[in-house]
Amino acid sequence: MAVQDKLGPEELQQYYATSDGIRLSPGWVGRERSGPPDIEPFQWRWSEVAPLVLKSGEIVTPDRDVERRTMRLATPGLDRGTTHTMVAALQLLLPGECAPAHRHTPTAIRWILTGSGAYTTVEGDKCYMEPGDLILTPSWTWHDHSNEGTDPMIWLDGLDVPFVGYLRAHFYEAFPEDTQPITGVGDSIRKYASGALRPIWGERDLPYSPLWHYKWDRTYEALKGLSELGSDPFDDVAMEFSDPTTGRPVLRSMTCWAQLIRPGIRTKAHRHTSSKVYQVFKGEGYSVISGQRFDWTEGDFFVVPSWAWHEHASSEGTESVLFSIQDTPVMKSMALYREEPYTEHTGHQPITSSFGG
Ligand SMILES: [Fe+2]
Ligand SMILES: [Fe+2]
Prior knowledge:
Shape: globular
Helix content: 10-25%
CATH topology: Jelly Rolls
CATH architecture: Sandwich
Largest sheet: 6 strands, antiparallel
Bound molecules: fe (ii) ion
């Protein structure tokens, strides 16, 4: 559309003043770019993160005021969130402590990093947390965390808070007691973790998986089994945690993946409109994101922004396992998911810089 010059300068100025006065904004003037700020990929090293997370135990205690002792993975350029849709944070719970029961419309996942002897109660179901376990606390489910062991527990919280906040749909409710009554121990596992078998009664068509505890040993066994059968050029041996009753991603807003990058494998690069936060659960290697090399080792975190080229590599002789949260279900449900392979240089990006280098 071409802008015409039929109005003189004064008349034009008057026109804009009048339209502004009644809150009409001409779409042809100073087009605003909509959406959140662009973010660059970023990495956090476990060797730097862990001491600060442990030290936070001397600064605050979870109670009704503090609620949770967490530290956000604060990607530069974002004043909240780790990507524009999701927030990832590290939570510390010391022996004897309880992070009080509540529920909220944002959905959360817990990816357990270190420690033992603590549990999360989800809707009355007591789920003992061990490293590599995935625990879901879906939208509006009651949850609290207690540590009855002798070790500090650290886990990764992943929530869709930025997205839910943008939609103005954030609601919260505190449970009247610090802990909710426990009605079962590992019940969701007993009912739903066998995969192909499920009870003939019980939950159906929930907007999230009724299995909310995925144990590490089963995840790893599944990855190893699949690694003998095949691989994906962009993600090597990757599996998506799914709702055993529907086959869909575990949650409506986020999906979780565990992926095994076999020793010495460098995947090909691609990009997609979904964003991801990764944790290196095991191994050592690097990712190339937007041409930048991120060398990672066990425990590190990194973020892959939307539409950034990325590829992953495991060091020679080292098997790596990456965990990730992704906003893919949101993008797919709104028909906004796009993905494309990098076709130049035999599928690998030229490396132009190194993170932190
Ligand atoms: Fe919560
Ligand atoms: Fe990807």
